[in-house]
């Protein structure tokens, strides 16, 4: 018995594969004439459209909110931070300022400015029920073209000064 992969079938390039010859089923439907039958006129089905990519400020705001509210561990931000930002984030998450027994915190508004090319300073308004909090963070573009958080503050409270 020959394996399927080793069979050599002599086919002509213009020939079609064999059709099913089952007498128990009725024949196929007649061929359609061009222009008859349903057509799709939705432009999105004809031409592919690019899906808009979220801004880095939106992505980092979501990630930081998940960490500070206790929904994600702090080490989830390890590869997304640079410099002392990870220590600041760990200090903030340790005190759990956004952890509450009530409703989950949500992002109400995001704003940002670009003080120079490759750097973004952003602020986020975070709502938890009736209460609003503020968070600020700085992103810098690395040599590998990846954004990293280099500073984070929550509610205006600064972390204690580090002595090295």
Features:
alpha+beta; Nuclear Transport Factor 2, Chain: A; 3 helices; 24% strand; elongated; disordered N terminus
Report the order of strands and helices. Answer: HHHEEEE
Poorly predicted sequence stretches spanning 5 or more consecutive residues: 1-7
> Per CATH, which architecture of the domain at 56-95 and 105-154?
Roll
Largest sheet: 4 strands, antiparallel
CATH class category of the domain at 56-95 and 105-154: Alpha Beta
Fraction in beta strands: 15-25%
Describe what this molecule looks like in 3D.
The model is unreliable at 1-7 (pLDDT under 50). Strand 2 (119-128) and strand 3 form a beta hairpin. By secondary structure, the protein is of the alpha+beta class. The protein has helices spanning 43-46, 56-68, 85-95, and strands at residues 106-116, 119-128, 131-141, 147-154. It has a domain at 56-95 and 105-154: Nuclear Transport Factor 2, Chain: A (Roll), CATH 3.10.450.50. It is elongated, with a radius of gyration of 29 Å. The longest helix has 13 residues, at 56-68. The protein has 3 helices and 4 strands, in the order H-H-H-E-E-E-E. 17% of the residues lie in helices and 24% in strands. Strands 1-2-3-4 form a 4-stranded antiparallel β-sheet.
